[in-house]
């Protein structure tokens, strides 16, 4: 979990800046492992397909749990110090049970795995954009700084970038 970092004159709270997207990546990573285990055990007799409730885990990570909030006053309390992605594995309801008791449907598992991979990539792309925005805010806008330098020197900034390059 990222923490608040202090820079003189500026406080950056990465948890506030990134929201639940960090936790979303961790949950998607864990779900990929669960789905891979399901696929690996597709031919194992009596194996029960498992999955995670992504929405519930994200609500939990965001602190939006339904019902009253319990506070752990001792380290031995249930759930005290547990990571945000420590959710229970759920059993997948089989579409068509098999004779050997295995509930893994390889087609469903592969589709869920592919969807999870796409969602993971989307979350990662979103986080990259967030980091790019934070870096830009910290660094400052180069075009704005160039305009300020030109005004100090007395130069005029060309209206069109091609004019600036001499084209």
Main sheet attributes: strand count, strand direction, barrel closure:
2 strands, antiparallel
Give Rg in angstroms: 25 Å
Spatial gap, N to C terminus? 50 Å
Low-confidence stretches: 80-85
Number of strands: 4
The percent of residues in helical segments reads 40-55%
By secondary-structure content and strand pairing, the structural class works out as mainly alpha
Shape: elongated
Integer average pLDDT: 76
The percentage of residues in β strands lies in: 5-15%
> What is the strand arrangement across the widest sheet?
1-2
Report on the architecture of this protein.
By secondary structure, this protein is mainly alpha-helical. It is 51% helix and 7% strand. It contains six helices and four strands; from the N terminus they run ββααβαβααα. Strands 1-2 form a two-stranded antiparallel ribbon. A two-stranded antiparallel sheet has the order 3-4. Strand 1 (4-7) and strand 2 (10-13) form a beta hairpin.
Summarize the topology.
Layout: E1 4-7, E2 10-13, H1 14-18, H2 21-40, E3 50-51, H3 54-62, E4 90-91, H4 106-139, H5 142-153, H6 161-165
Antiparallel strand pairs: 1-2, 3-4
Helix pairs in contact: 2-3, 2-4
Q: What keyword list fits this structure?
A:
6 helices; two-stranded antiparallel sheet; 167 residues; 51% helix; single chain; mainly alpha
In short:
It is built from six helices and four strands; from the N terminus they run E-E-H-H-E-H-E-H-H-H. By secondary structure, the chain is mainly α. Strand 1 and strand 2 form a beta hairpin.
